[in-house]
Write a structure and sequence with these properties.
By secondary structure, the protein is α+β, with helices and mostly antiparallel strands.
Length: 932
């Protein structure tokens, strides 16, 4: 059957289904419109003035009690019971109220105020049988309003999906039927069918992604408008009198737009860059109240307005950009839904092609959101968004999907090819024939009549002997290629790490040099991977030049290895190479390392007419003399060298240790010595790590407290200091375990335990207390979540906590610190910068972060009585802190002279051994303080 004939096959039935699906769209629109008509009409609540005795008995109201007034309260009013707007009106022996509704579940209760009774009575609506259980175990009356806009969208998507699927079926099914009956190899039929189906599926998926992105952007826009509404509400904007609120609105908009004046990084996904560009507030008649732009857009919008003949940007938006949008939004205002639209065609001339393309794909760039409050329209928010990068992101997404589709097609095509050949009868015959060939039986003639390449194979059977020979040759070449790929680097063609270890096991290698390009990853990031590859090739050429008696390996992304055999090392070759009469192997190896360093680093690397400079660090390792002798079968030598390696398999590891030591010490070359492989130090680190892990698991952390004495009229405070109490009672100070705890990544667990025990210690105490916290503690989301959860579990104690951020570690991740402060400040916590005046501290932190206390570093306080510079700096910090409204604390107060100066500088608090040493309990700390 021809392709056209198959398309005409059952065409009447398919056309009927297609017409039915097309009619489904208007039918569903009519049905939904009818169902949602009046869905948002206010719900009338009614209650008899003389409530029957059954209802009174149910809610504990006396039969003769007089109901003075009734309110309706619920989630729509934040459960306020005295809002006069929600007071029921009495008329004709009935209390009634028309409650505004919105899509979703609406919970409420009736609040009855009884004469001569202080507390009101909360009851359910006796006329509404639907109820829901509230979080406190009680019940609320419930009104369920269907979300018809969402139902409409879902039904339209389903209808479009059904219609699109059926259209694809009508197009693909006849074509696939025709394809499967063509005279071509079966596996190709499968491959072509697979490609066609995958392409259609990818098209559908891409269409869905476009719709999903549009919905995500629309939702993000709604969230931004909601955030703007909250800002304006926080500024005290009276939405009942929007016409008179221009100043408050402008002040609120300034908080939103002024901080966001920096252009967003273009390398980020543009889905996160579609932000508000312009924002306006209009009254309920659509008259503009105020219009604000982003800082970088104000001049641009004014210029566009002038180009299009408008007097100013206000006319540009109201009479131009929103000319069609505003009337539509006003007509649909009572629905409370955001209205979106593209800019008018005559307004596109001033935009770039990127913006126009992005807007045409996205479908909108302008919006209007009605402000509906208590069922009444109060005004509108309107604005425009930036979409110019959306087109680029869409292109990248499309190219990525094409690449993904190509990979899937290649893989699936290969699979279908294999499957197609396996499911045919001719393949089974060919399999049986190949089995006979393997057995050496070349006399059997294969007869196949399949009109494809298998038949060609049978016709070429007489040439099979030569083909087999060719196959064997190909196998040998493939084996050689596999060996090359397994043992040699693809870029430089040098032997790789696997080949090195094979040679170390099989050859007599007596010395090894590891050459590492310093900071090569940063070089790649700066110049690009292609330039980095050229650098690697040039370095390899320089190391392999001059016919040196060495073997060069490429063992890592930025690492080369040079080996020398024991025969070469003990011969005169290396001595002649380094031009020295010394026969000392260490000196020879050092000289060789220096030569290699000079070859690579002394002259610039010329790549494509550009000069590049790199540095390398070189580490060497020697096989011990007695091992070299054994390798050369020379008996009688027992010389040992503590700076040499006793096993060839350890050469690479030891040379790399020496290389890391050289880099750390900023040396050109270093030879391995036994001190570098300090097994005792490694074992001690392991022991400490195990001890700290057990300390975290069994909670050995104990908080020691040190009193903080006020120098002003204020109560005393304490600082909690971490200690570890071992099972034998020994107390470890921070300097005994802190470095290992940070290095082993166990410190966050110890810190959480410290915070938990500190809260427990001060739970029943009236004192404020502080706990140290580092950037690592709050930068990890999981750790931060655990800390916040712990704080929320003890709200009363949390209000007395001060977190001391360690300033000496240099605050660099402002986003993490600000996020932490915003999380804990609402819980009542205070924030202090610890060790201020040390390390990289600066006054910018005081301006950038919402802190309460400055703790001046002990390095300044300790010598305050004798160091004029310290006195000047401490006095400056105190003056600055007082003017900023921050409290100050001085640490390491050790004598009366220092304390006197602190009083002179009007420092608020003092802390140190003069006032009290750290103690295991609050009582001990107070006793020490009282005694001193």
């Amino acid at each position: 059957m021809s392709l056209i004939a198959h398309y005409l096959h059952k065409w009447k039935f398919r056309v009927a289904i297609l017409i039915g699906l097309c009619l489904l769209w208007p039918i569903q629109s009519i049905i939904i419109s009818a169902l949602q008509s009046g869905a948002l009409e206010p719900y009338r609540i009614q209650l008899p003035v003389n409530v029957d005795n059954t209802t009174r008995d149910k809610w504990g109201i006396k039969h003769d009690a007089i109901i003075e007034k009734v309110f309706v309260s619920g989630s729509f009013s934040d459960w306020h019971i005295d809002d006069t707007f929600y007071q029921l009106t009495q008329q004709n022996q009935q209390w009634y109220f028309d409650l505004p509704v919105y899509p979703g579940d609406l919970e409420y209760k009736l609040v009855l105020f009884i004469q001569n009774k202080v507390e009101p009575v909360w009851i359910l609506d006796p006329n509404n049988p639907q109820t829901s259980v509230n979080p406190w175990g009680g019940e609320n009356s419930l009104i369920r309003i269907a979300d018809w806009p969402k139902i409409t969208l879902i039904s339209q998507i389903l209808t479009a999906a059904l219609l699109g699927t059926f259209l694809l079926f009508c197009i693909l099914e006849p074509f696939l039927y025709w394809l499967l009956h063509q005279k071509i190899p079966f596996h190709r039929k499968l491959v072509l069918s697979n490609i066609l189906i995958l392409a259609c599926a990818q098209l559908l998926f891409f269409s869905y992604q476009l719709h999903l992105n549009r919905q995500l952007i629309k939702q993000g826009l709604i969230d931004s408008v909601h955030a703007m509404h909250l800002i304006l509400h926080g500024e005290g904007v009276d939405f009942e009198q929007l016409d008179t609120q221009a100043n408050n609105i402008n002040r609120g908009l300034s908080q939103f737009f002024v901080p966001a004046t920096t252009r967003i990084d273009k390398t980020q996904s543009s889905l996160f860059q579609i932000t508000l560009s312009d924002f306006a507030v209009l009254d309920k008649n659509g008259q503009l109240i105020t219009l604000r732009h982003r800082g970088q857009n104000a001049q641009i919008q004014q210029s566009r307005a002038e180009q299009l003949g408008f007097n100013n940007s206000r006319d540009y938006f109201v009479d131009g950009m929103w000319r069609d949008l505003l009337p539509k939004a006003i007509a649909e205002a009572q629905k409370g839904q955001i209205v979106i639209m593209s800019r008018p065609q005559n307004m596109n001339g001033v935009e770039t092609s990127r913006t126009r393309t992005a807007e045409s794909i996205l479908g909108f760039s302008q919006f209007v959101q009605p402000i509906v409050y208590r069922g009444q329209l109060k005004g509108f928010y309107a604005g425009s968004i930036q979409v110019k990068l959306y087109g680029d992101e869409l292109l990248r997404m499309f190219l990525f999907q094409l690449l993904l589709l190509g990979g899937i097609i290649v893989l699936s095509s290969w699979l279908f090819t294999r499957v197609g050949k396996m499911v045919t009868e001719d393949i089974l015959k060919l399999t049986k024939w190949t089995q006979n060939i393997v057995k050496g039986d070349l006399s059997q003639v294969l007869t196949i009549n399949s009109q494809d390449e298998i038949q060609q194979l049978s016709e070429n059977f007489n040439n099979m002997r030569q083909s087999l020979q060719d196959s064997f040759t190909q196998i040998a070449e493939q084996n050689s290629k596999l060996y090359q790929e397994a043992y040699f680097n693809g870029l430089t063609a040098l032997p790789n790490r696997k080949k090195l270890y094979s040679d170390l096991a099989e050859q007599s290698i007596g010395a090894l040099l590891v050459i590492n390009i310093n900071d090569f990853g940063e070089f790649n990031d700066f110049y690009g991977v292609d330039t980095g590859d050229e650098i690697l090739l040039e370095v390899a050429n320089r190391l392999a030049a001059k016919n040196r008696p060495i073997t060069l390996y490429k063992t890592g992304p930025d690492e080369f290895v040079v080996t020398l055999t024991t025969q070469i090392l003990t011969s005169d070759t290396v001595s002649n190479l380094v031009s020295t009469e010394s026969s000392n192997n260490h000196l020879q190896l050092a000289k060789l390392g220096q030569l290699l360093f000079d070859d690579v680093c002394q002259k610039p690397l010329l790549i494509k007419d550009s000069e590049y400079y790199i540095s390398v660090s070189i580490g060497g390792a020697l096989l011990s003399v007695n091992q070299q002798v054994l390798a050369k079968n020379i008996p009688g030598s027992t010389i040992a060298n503590s700076s040499s390696t006793t096993s060839a398999n350890q050469l690479h590891r030891h040379a790399d240790l020496a290389r890391r030591f050289a880099k750390k010490q900023q040396l050109t070359y270093c030879c391995f010595s036994s001190e570098m492989a300090n097994s005792a130090a490694f074992e001690e680190n392991m022991r400490q790590s195990r001890m700290l892990a057990k300390a975290a698991q069994e909670q050995w952390v104990v908080p020691y407290v040190q009193l903080i004495q006020p120098l002003i009229d204020a109560p005393i405070k304490f600082e909690c200091l971490m200690r570890l109490q071992l099972p034998d009672g020994q107390i470890l100070a921070p300097h005994q375990f802190m470095a290992a705890a940070r290095q082993s990544r166990i410190y966050p667990q110890l810190m959480r335990c410290m915070l938990q025990k500190s809260i427990a210690l001060f739970k029943n105490q009236p004192y404020e207390f502080s706990v140290n916290i580092t950037l690592d503690d709050i930068a990890i989301a999981q750790n931060l979540e655990a800390i916040v959860s712990l704080l929320k579990s003890e709200p009363d104690t949390t209000q007395r906590i001060t977190f001391e951020l360690l300033e000496s570690e240099e605050i660099t991740n402002y986003e993490a610190v600000e996020h932490f402060i915003k999380l804990v400040k609402p819980l009542g916590c205070k924030i202090a910068i610890d060790d201020f005046g040390a390390g990289y501290s600066n006054f910018v932190h005081l301006l950038s972060l919402d802190i309460d206390i400055i703790k001046i570093d002990g390095s300044l306080i300790r010598h305050l009585d004798s160091d004029p510079k310290a006195q000047l700096l401490v006095e400056t910090i105190a003056i600055f802190a007082h003017k900023m409204g921050k409290k100050t604390v001085a640490e390491f107060v050790e004598n009366d002279a220092i304390l006197s100066l602190l009083n002179q500088y009007e420092i608020d608090y003092a802390q140190g051994y003069l006032l009290g040493e750290p103690a295991a309990s609050i009582a001990q700390a107070l006793a020490i303080y009282s005694a001193e």
